[in-house]
Here is the input.
Amino acid sequence: MGSTELDGGMTMSKARWCGGLVGLILLAVACAPAAPAGVGTAPQPAAQPAARESAPGQPATKPAGEPASAEWDRVKEAAKREGTVVVSGPGAPELRTGITEGFQKAHGITVEYLGLPSGEIQTRVDREQKAGQPSIDVYVGGSTTCWNMAERGYVDPIAPELMDPAILNPAVWRDGVLPLLSPLPGQPPDFNCAFQFAEWVPPDLMVNTQLVPPSTITSWRDLLKPEYKGRITAYDPRSAGPGQTPAAYLLILFGEQYLRDLYLGQEVALSRDDRQLAESVARGSYGIGIGLIPPQIEQFRALGLPLQRVIPADGPGYTTGGFGTLMKLKGSPHPNAARVFINWYLTKEAQEIHEGAMMEPSLRADVVRKAPDYIVPRADVKYDFNNTDPDFFFNKRMPANQTVVEIMGR
Here is the structure.
């Protein structure tokens, strides 16, 4: 995997974001979608005035008063007639195979899967939406991609797409609520652009235990010790990916001088290749790594290489969604197949496929855990922030990202 989205990659300025909200609100009013239910409740499909066959490019509808189960059956039949759904998501081969085979087996519908970097997909969606020719139905990605596309009016609210009783039961989700992604500040409170199905604690600090005993690092400030100069590697925090958030996190906790002393003073070696980064620590080229991702970590741990996570007492970490959000693109060419895919992706079966491929712990309470324990959020730990909280992201995380680039240089 050469690209990873840890809720990163959003480049719009705060001013542009705020200005764009006005247009999005007007768009939402003009389109007048059925208001989705709030978090923790099962959304109710809006009744339609009369029965009709689904027209091309339109979702199936139901007669007024028809039971929700009958409407769900109608959508599934219309989805089979469409026959295909186009899904964009992470480029992990295991995920692509699991999704395409799993959905075909469950519903007999072909998945055209686009495993491209988030920036490339956003560029494509922007071009197609402006031309009025969208080709993608569903996007599996990060929360900031969702907010970015919602701000531009490129996604539909997710709650009206949720129909399968198996996923609408709050009891199957952690804490007994449906984890809909919070809207942008200033956006309609019921405009949830995505369903957040995963949450985890990034393993920001990893060591090769044969070179650096984990007990020698009890504070993030220990990384400034002279003996670690030239022995640390990190994912480049100036680019979208798993290096952005830890650098912003350290800046927020310890200030600009600490960041300078660490990345510049300690001559941290930067990489933009997930596998290369993990391998350089696993095989001992460097003793300490910042911004490694679980799929690569686990590959080398499976070979018996001595990688271990370290959690300093003065910075236990933060939670994030990673690629764990599910979005419906506006004007999708296969709206019924898209709806069926969204509901299927939130089932126990599909969530275990995603967790196994991406090592991102599902928020479903009934999945067989496949992600490593060191990234599963613990109830007894108070994490410093939630990276999928839009108030935190826009008011602290984005300014911190800009400061990191200023410190590091382009």
